[in-house]
Design brief:
Radius of gyration: 21 Å
CATH class of one domain: Alpha Beta
Strand order of the largest sheet: 2-1-3-4-5
Strand content: 5-15%
CATH architecture of one domain: 3-Layer(aba) Sandwich
Distance between the termini: 79 Å
Helix content: 40-55%
């Protein structure tokens, strides 16, 4: 009886395991930004001098191709300061020539709730970069990409089957193809873009501020201890986005940055939030397009080359 039950259970589970295994292989073998970044990291780790961290704003705004020194951009959507610190501290020994770290600080960064321990991108960090962001002992299942976020990867698989949705990640993992961005789909028409509903995070969160300021201070302390130059960038946004920011959150962010500059006067800030970037320089109201990233990256490169 027990034997029969076991056989039935195995026969029932086997197709499920095979399907999940096939999906996992599909995800791992599909071109992606993390996969390209991992390859670049593996091949160039001995030469990399600049590490870009942060959330999607830095991911879109900084293109390593336009930096004069070997640069890797490991920023990604919804990445918080604790994860930035984890990436930096665990990669430092693998990057012997690292001398500069670029961080991001939008007006909403401090009020954005940090990610949970089981955040799905931790599987991405572990599988592709061999970085443990779980904050605990890891197991084989922690590297499974598809199961970390079935909804995201299912959608990714389906969209990748359409030729017009195929992404070009170049040599650095940067999203080279922006034809499907909201502004591009609107043909960068000012009236059409102005009619877009504005997606902006204006909710104050005191608990998040406490956690994020602690993590950010740890990053700056680590950089100082390791003698790494630090550049904090405030990436460009459209006028509509700039005008709709929560003034209390902006004031708190600015006050915190002022405090950090007093504690770490060697750190640099590049404030480009209120800029003259054209609509064609944006994918949406607060993310640069490849064209905008080229311009902004060159501005960053100039600032880092400056003796001051």
């Amino acid at each position: 009886m027990v034997k029969k039950y076991l056989i039935r259970t195995i026969l029932f589970l086997l197709p499920v395991v095979l399907i999940l295994g096939a999906l996992e292989l599909w995800v791992r073998n599909t071109p992606s930004s993390p996969k390209t970044i991992a390859s670049y990291l593996h091949n160039e780790s001995e030469n990399l001098e600049v590490l870009v961290l942060g959330a999607s704003q830095n991911q879109a705004a900084i293109h390593p191709e336009f930096m004069s020194r070997p640069t890797i951009n490991m920023a990604s959507g919804h990445q918080d300061y604790a994860e930035d610190l984890t990436l930096l501290s665990q990669l430092k020994e693998r990057l012997p020539k690292l001398n500069t770290v670029i961080l991001s600080m939008t007006f909403a960064h401090l009020d954005t709730p940090p990610n949970k321990q089981e955040f799905w991108k931790h599987a991405t960090f572990l599988y592709y970069y061999n970085v443990n962001a779980y904050g605990r002992k890891v197991y084989a299942k922690d590297k499974l990409l598809f199961l970390s976020n079935p909804s995201f990867y299912s959608n990714d698989i389906f969209t990748s089957l359409t030729p017009m949705n195929v992404q070009d990640f170049g040599d650095y993992g940067y999203f080279e193809n922006a034809i499907n961005s909201p502004f591009a789909k609107a043909n960068f028409d000012p009236q059409g873009i102005d009619d877009f509903p504005l997606s902006i995070f204006n909710r104050e969160n005191e608990d998040a501020v406490v956690q994020n300021t602690i993590a950010f201070k740890k990053i700056l302390a680590f950089c100082k201890e390791q003698q790494l130059k630090t550049l904090i960038v405030l990436t460009p946004v459209t006028k509509k986005h700039y005008d709709h920011r929560n003034p209390k959150m902006v004031a708190r962010r600015d006050a915190f940055l002022k405090e950090m500059m007093e504690l770490y006067p060697e750190a640099l800030i590049l404030d480009a939030e209120q800029s003259d970037y054209a609509l064609t320089d944006f994918n949406n109201h607060n993310h640069l397009s490849p064209q905008g990233a080229e311009r902004f990256t060159k501005e960053i490169d100039l600032q880092l080359q400056s003796p001051n």
